[in-house]
Amino acid sequence: MRRLACALIGATALLAVQQAAAATKLTIATVNNGDMIRMQKLTDDFTARNPGIELDWVTMEENVLRQKVTTDIATKGGQYDIMTIGTYEVPIWAKQGWLVPLDNLGPSYDVDDLLPSIRNGLSLGGKLYAAPFYGESSMTMYREDLFEKAGLTMPEAPSWDFIAEAARKITDKAHEVYGICLRGKAGWGENMAFLTAMSNSFGARWFDMKWQPQFDGKAWKDTLKFYVDLMHDAGPPGASSNGFNENLALFQSGKCGMWIDATVAASFVSDPKESKVADKVGFALAPDRGLGKRANWLWAWSLAIPSGSNKKAAAEKFIAWATSKDYLKLVASKDGWANVPPGTRKSLYDNPAYRKAAAFADMTLKSIQAADPTHPTVDPVPYVGVQFVAIPQFQGIGTAVGQQFSAALAGTTSVDQALKNAQALTEREMKRGGYIK
Amino acid sequence: MATLHTRTTARFMLSPAVLLLLVWMIVPLGMTLYFSFLRYNLLMPGMEAFAGIENYQFFLTDPAFMDALVNTLLLVGGVLLITVVGGVFLALLIDQPFWGQGIVRLLVISPFFVMPTVSALVWKNMFMHPVNGLFAWVARGFGLAPIDWLASVPLLSIVIIVAWGWLPFATLIILTALQSLDQEQKEAAEMDGAGALSIFAYITLPHLARALTVVVLIETIFLLSVFAEILVTTNGGPGTASTNIPYLIYAQALLQYDIGGASAGGVVAIVLANIVAVFLIRMIGKNLEA
Amino acid sequence: MARAVTRRRKLAFTLVGWTIGLTLFFPILWAILTSFKSEGEAIASPPSFLFFHWTLENYAEVQARSDYLLYALNSVVISLGSTGLGLLVAIPAAWSMAFAPSKRTKDILMWMLSTKMLPPVGVLVPIYLLFRDFGLLDTRGGLVAVLMLMNLPIIVWMLYTYFKEIPGEILEAARMDGATLAKEIVHVLAPMAVPGIASTVLLNIILAWNEAFWTLNLTASDAAPLSAFIASYSSPEGLFWAKLSAASTLAIAPILVMGWFSQKQLVRGLTFGAVK
């Protein structure tokens, strides 16, 4: 028996040693989004310039990725040298000292070229902790042909009332055309990203200055009721399980009249290879209610180095390559300007070639500039983040609240009950977190 | 002398398995127990402190807890019902001679080889999706409004997905038992003029008792911890309509990173699982006696 | 007359049997068919069953993005490794429980099964910390050990019930003839136990192959098996049904084929003592 145990330990130790003996190999954890997959395919350019460095990709679906990198960084597991994280994680992790400050990206990197709102979201105390790979806000995408048929004109900055009216008018359920597609699938990064941004434009907020949850207020009730009624009249069936991807598929196959979602979707819906409606899509800002805030969020998928990595120099080289101006040119030369990762650099939006190829460029830039993570709401709040609240508890709370709202959309609970449950569960978690007594 | 020798050897041979499992059980369980009395959030290091029974209180007073408990039992019960009844039926069918029996048997057992995540993804996107799914297409073909499976009947949908994967397992075990049934006994009963139903009720079913016990026991062990299918399809929703105990623990552990709370949940789950196990063994354990 | 009845009966059973068989198999078949469609056709309504433009582009795309063979190799190593190691531990244990039972044998067996009730999510962090400290994160060795322990109770139980059916008198007789324990196991026990062991091995390989919690959460790249391969296709941006189907087909194909070819062996031993 003892011999067996020895053999077991020996065998595993051997395997562990073998792995440690490899050369400078960077393990990169990333999301399986289109732009990252393209980056993965273009890495020959990087390895040709940096012969000593090998790249090892771990590509995962967003939620799986997040749970793996968070577990790893929090336990100092050290499995990854570069992690793809978002504007939600960066301020929290940087505060814990888990990330390496990126002040060594080389002379040609031009940090000042980054869009200010994106750069602010990824900095703490003036230091950049993650380099943006692509940035996004949200905007309204709509079908010009359907609007024309219904005799409607989309303004550049629509109001919620106009959106609702237009959605109901366009809807033709017999022909599977639904006036509006919005996220309904439960999750803090799914329906709650949209609904939180929407609630900002309705004058709602998650917490008041004393961290007291605000779901019992009128603003949230207005938001949720408006959303549920609209989706009931003009939304697709099964909306409560639709996330970004599901809606994208619906819009691409011509079943949505409007879709308010991430600006990056613009290049997918206008790609004739994937989208049936590529030449009929128009863009407008996310709607508002005249209260001074629009329903647009701010997010940037970014590359960061965990402080446990012992290959910092190589990792910095890679990050500098992947988020540089040259990388944008590289993508443009291979796949055309319309496909470069958007929303990170001013110079891209000054580039006439890009503006010509990407009809959505102007609206994307305006949307990103309109979002302000430090002042996201009409009334003051104690937190940072437009469509999220940058505290560690938010993932759990956001998802649980998202489930309640998803149930309200599915019709299994009432709007009032969903808000009551959301208020109760948020209070419970905030008490546990020590924010409120 | 020989027996004493054998006894000692036997103990010696049993010990690796017992010791390994003991370590496998005690080390994580010990750590889990320890963490469950700690205020410990992975995202807030340096705040660990002894918390007493606070974590247990927090987990047990979760408004979703009772729902999760009921859902767990419904899920286990529902899948067991489908697989046992369906398994007996399928086994009886496959036991009959017909053309292409071998191929049909292969088709029937295939779902058992499919990873839970894959089957959940396939069912969700290609069958139950209310717009692009095949069920929706069929419903529209009959002029009906498509059912939004995962939103209107989430738990039933998950039961169907899980049961699809376990049906072959039940069928195989029951089939093996069925084939060991004494044909002469059956024929004798037939001669006496017994109908097919009474042969089934008085001869076949009692013969299958042990096989069914085994199916119930093994499936229960696996079904109590069903999790991947829920994560992929409904995320426990809408509301808490498809949240079970493992999913609730997942939310504590990998969304909140509240290790204290998740550990308390883990301990609660083990206690509950053992209660179920005791009941099961009481109820059907006598069938297992040789 | 009687012949006609049996024939008609057989025809009826054929019809029912094939209908049910095809229905149960349909989700797999549909995934396989979809994997040969273009993304547009994959979500087309009405769906096309056979008369679509067959293409291999999804497979090419999947292979270009992630090296399938590497993941498949890890899956093979991990499932075979954990099964082999499990057998090494389980055979002696099951042997001793079957041939030298004590009062506590049944309790030990039940206790072993109860270790399977530990919900994995609840103990992820403790295990992750242990793996980190022993340098086992993202190693095949670590996964082999975990999966072996996960499935050990089932293996022991299966072997135990199988061994128990071997009449003890044969062993007694061999012992009378002066056979040593080793000889007893090799010459007498092994030949009789082979079908049971074969079926145990198969079941365990299937369970290990399809395990998707530990394999996903304890690996990054070097040891990542097919469960991780799938995780990178589950919901990327854009249309993904066809690519997901191709990845799914690739992930289940080896185990499905193995299962089909060995189903006789699998079935023969899959009794858990349910047959006397």
Automatic annotation (TrEMBL), chain A:
Name the UniProt record assigns to this protein: Sorbitol-binding protein /mannitol-binding protein
Subcellular localization(s) per the UniProt record: Periplasm
Keywords of the record: Signal
GO cellular component terms listed in the entry, alphabetical order: periplasmic space
Organism listed in the record: Tistlia consotensis USBA 355
Primary location recorded for the protein, binned into one broad class: periplasm
UniProt family annotation: Belongs to the bacterial solute-binding protein 1 family.
Gene3D superfamilies linked to this entry: Periplasmic binding protein-like II
UniProtKB/TrEMBL annotation, chain B:
Gene3D superfamilies reported for this sequence: MetI-like
Membrane-crossing residue ranges in chain numbering: 12-37, 68-94, 106-123, 155-178, 199-228, 259-281
Record flagged with keyword rRNA-binding: no
InterPro entries: MetI-like, MetI-like_sf
BP GO terms, sorted: transmembrane transport
Locations listed in the record: Cell membrane
Family: Belongs to the binding-protein-dependent transport system permease family.
PANTHER family on file: BLR7065 PROTEIN (PTHR43005), INTEGRAL MEMBRANE SUGAR TRANSPORT PROTEIN (PTHR43005:SF2)
Name of this protein: Sorbitol ABC transporter membrane protein /mannitol ABC transporter membrane protein
Organism encoding this protein: Tistlia consotensis USBA 355
Upper taxonomic lineage: Bacteria, Pseudomonadati, Pseudomonadota, Alphaproteobacteria, Rhodospirillales
TrEMBL record, chain C:
GO cellular component, one term: plasma membrane
SUPFAM superfamilies: MetI-like
Membrane topology: Multi-pass membrane protein
Keyword terms, alphabetized: Cell membrane, Membrane, Transmembrane, Transmembrane helix, Transport
Gene3D superfamilies with a match to the protein in the record: MetI-like
GO BP: any one term: transmembrane transport
Pfam families: BPD_transp_1
Record-annotated membrane-spanning stretches: 12-33, 68-96, 108-131, 143-163, 184-209, 240-261
ABC transmembrane type-1 domain mapped to chain residues: 72-262
Entry's localization field: Cell membrane
PANTHER family: INNER MEMBRANE ABC TRANSPORTER PERMEASE PROTEIN YCJP (PTHR32243:SF18), MALTOSE TRANSPORT SYSTEM PERMEASE-RELATED (PTHR32243)
Family: Belongs to the binding-protein-dependent transport system permease family.
Protein's name in the database: Sorbitol ABC transporter membrane protein /mannitol ABC transporter membrane protein
Organism in which the protein naturally occurs: Tistlia consotensis USBA 355
